[in-house]
Amino acid sequence: MKNIFLIAALFISGICVAQDVVEDFQPSSVNQPGKQYPQVNSEGRVRAQISAPEANNVRLDIGGVKYEMVKDENGVWTGESEPQDVGFHYYQLNVDGASVPDPGTKYFYGAGRWGSGIEIPADDSNIYALKDVPHGLVSEQTYFSEITQSFRRCFVYTPAEYAENPEKRYPVLYLQHGSFEDETGWPGQGHANRILDNLITANKAVPMIIVMDNGYAYKPQTSGGGRPAMVFEEVMLNEIIPMIDKRFRTIADREHRAIAGLSMGANQTMRICMNNLDKFAYYGGFSGTSNYPSSDEINVETFLNGAFKNGKSVNDQIKVFWLGLGTKEPEPFPGSVGAFRNMLEKQGIDYVYYESPETAHEWQTWRRSLHQYAQLLFK
Amino acid sequence: MKNIFLIAALFISGICVAQDVVEDFQPSSVNQPGKQYPQVNSEGRVRAQISAPEANNVRLDIGGVKYEMVKDENGVWTGESEPQDVGFHYYQLNVDGASVPDPGTKYFYGAGRWGSGIEIPADDSNIYALKDVPHGLVSEQTYFSEITQSFRRCFVYTPAEYAENPEKRYPVLYLQHGSFEDETGWPGQGHANRILDNLITANKAVPMIIVMDNGYAYKPQTSGGGRPAMVFEEVMLNEIIPMIDKRFRTIADREHRAIAGLSMGANQTMRICMNNLDKFAYYGGFSGTSNYPSSDEINVETFLNGAFKNGKSVNDQIKVFWLGLGTKEPEPFPGSVGAFRNMLEKQGIDYVYYESPETAHEWQTWRRSLHQYAQLLFK
C-alpha cells in the first residue's frame, strides 16, 4: 500500500523511474574527454552517473521530467531516463535541490544557460557527422556595435575552398538561433559547418559563407528605465551585413544573400526578409513564422504591413521560400505554421515545406532543416 | 572546547572559513549572461552562491582549498574564499560530496575538465581588455591527422588587417597551452587575440598570425596495449605547419616563425624549436623549460642532444630566446627555470627574462608573458 502511494506521488510530481532498460549503453558523443558518463542506449535512454556520497537525493532532469537516481555503496548515483528523441537535448542534474551541469558533458548555451547536452544517435547523423572531407573555417568575429553600444560577436563559416581561391567571391546565408540561445548554437550543437562541409563535398550545395550572429540586440538602456527596444533588424542591416561584405569576399547583392532562422530566429528573419526584399532573395523558417504564436487565419492586409498581399510579387522576388517543422512539435508551432501555410496557399505563393520525422522543437529538426534548405540556395 | 576541536579539524582537513570580508563584491566578468554570482571583492575574495535547499554541506573549492558555505532560510548557500591572486582561476563547487561546475559561470577547459572559472580584476587587465579597436578573427580549423589517425583542431588568430590586405603575407607564432589544458586555453582564458589586437593597434607588435593547437597527440593505440607514443613534434612539423602555410598567407621561413608555450607547452616547444632550428628563429618559454622538473645543473653535452653546447651558434640562430616566470610560482618551476638560466649564462647565450609580479603558475603570468614576448617578435 505504501508503495502504491509512493508511485502515485512520484507520478503526480512528474518524477519517473525508468524500468526494463536495454543494457547496451555507450558514452555520449558530446562527453568531456575521457568521461564515461552520461551514456545512451539503443532505445535512446540517457544514463547519468555522479559521485555524491553525502547527498540524499539526486535526479536527472531532461525533457521536462526529473528521473530519480539511485546511490550505490560507494556514494555513486546512477539513473536513467525514458527514451528520448534522436538528436541533441539540453539537460541538467539536481543534487539535493541544486540544479547543476553534469560534470561529464561538454557545455552548450540553450534554455538561457550554459549547461549540459546529450546526443542521441540518429539514423541520419551522417548529415552532420565529422568526416575526413575538406573542412571550412569557423571564425569568431568580435565587433563593437554603435547601435547597441556593446561588444557583439558572430561566427562566420567560410567553405574549405575559400582560402585557395583568393579571387573568388561567395554568396552568404545569415542563419539565426532561437530564443534563450545565442550565436554559439549553430556552430556548436547545430553543426552548421559540418552540414555544409559534407554537402559541399558531395556537390549538393554551392560553396557559401554562413554568418551566425546573436539575435538579442537592444538599444542602450535609458535612464527612464522600461524595457529596452529590440533592434536586431537595424543591427543586421546597418552593422552586420556591411561588416561581412567588407571583411569577407561576398557577392553583395540580393540574389546572393539568404536569411534563415529557427523558432524566434524564424520569426525575426521573416520580418527582416520581408521588410528588405532589396537585400534578400531566399528565406528559410525552421519551426517558426512571424504570426507566432497565433493559429488564427492571417489577415494579409495587415500582416507584416501587407508584405504577402501581392502573391505574384512575392513569387517574383523570393527565389526559395522554405518552411520546416518537426512532426512531434507541440502547439503553438504546428498551428501557427499551419495558419501561415494556409495564407501562402491562398495567396498563390510558392514555397517548400519539409517535415522532420519524429522530432520536436529541438536541434535535430533544425539540423535537418538546414541540410534541406542549404541544397536549394544560390542555384 | 568543542569549537577548538572543530577549528583544528577544519584546519587539518584544509577547510577554511573566511572572515572580516570587505562588502564591495561585484559579479565576475566571466559569469553567464545575467548571473549575479559568483562575485569578487576588492580584496580578491570569491563569493559563490547556489540554491540547494536539501543539501547538508556545500563548499567552494578554489586554489586547492575548500571553503564552507552557509545556508539561509530559503535554502540558498553562500560563502567566500580567502583573497586570490589577480587573474583567472579554475574552481568548482562541492554539493554534498558532488564536485560540480558552478552554474553561474561560463566554462573553461583546464585541470583536465570543462569547469568554472573566475576572474580577479588586475591593475594591468588593460593588456587583455576587450576594447573598441580593430579585432582580428579567431578561426577554428578542424583537420584529420594521418599521424594520430584522429580529428584535431586548432584556433588561428589573424590580425584585423589580414582581410584588407589580400596580397600581404604574415609571420606566424605557434603558441601552446599547458598540461591538462587544450587548444581553447589561449583564445579563451588566455585572451591571446585581445592581447594582440591591443598591441597591434598601439603599434607595439607586428601584425602576425597565431596558431593555437592541442599539445596532446598520440600514435594510434596498437593492439599490444601500453602507453601510446607522444608525437606532437611530428604533428607540428608534418601536419600543422604545412596546413597553416597552405591555408593562410604566411611568410613560410624560419625568420618569420616563432614558437612558444606555457608550462608543459614551454617544455614541448623548446624541444621542437631546438630540434628544428631550420624552422624557428624565436622561442618563448612561459613558466617552463625542457629540464623540468629537475633543478640540477644541466649537462650541456647531453641536454636536448647538446643543442645548447655551442652558445655562439644558438645566439646566431635564435633572434629572441625568451623566458618568463611568476614571482609566486611554486617549486619545481623556479628551481628548474633557474637551473636553465644558469646554463644559458654559462654558455653565453643571450636571453630575455621576465618576472610576472605576484602571480603563480596561472594564466595571469602567461597573459603577461605573451604581452611581453609578442612585442619582441619579427622586428
TrEMBL record, chains A, B:
Gene3D superfamilies for the chain: alpha/beta hydrolase, Immunoglobulins
Name of the protein this chain belongs to: Esterase
Stored InterPro entries: AB_hydrolase_fold, Esterase-like, Ig-like_fold, Ig_E-set, Mycobacterial_A85_antigen
First and last residue of the signal peptide: 1-18
Natural source organism: Draconibacterium halophilum
GO function terms (MF aspect): acyltransferase activity, transferring groups other than amino-acyl groups
Keyword check for Ribonucleoprotein: no
Keywords: Signal
PANTHER family registered for this protein in UniProt: DIACYLGLYCEROL ACYLTRANSFERASE_MYCOLYLTRANSFERASE AG85A, ENTEROCHELIN ESTERASE-RELATED
Domain of life (superkingdom): Bacteria
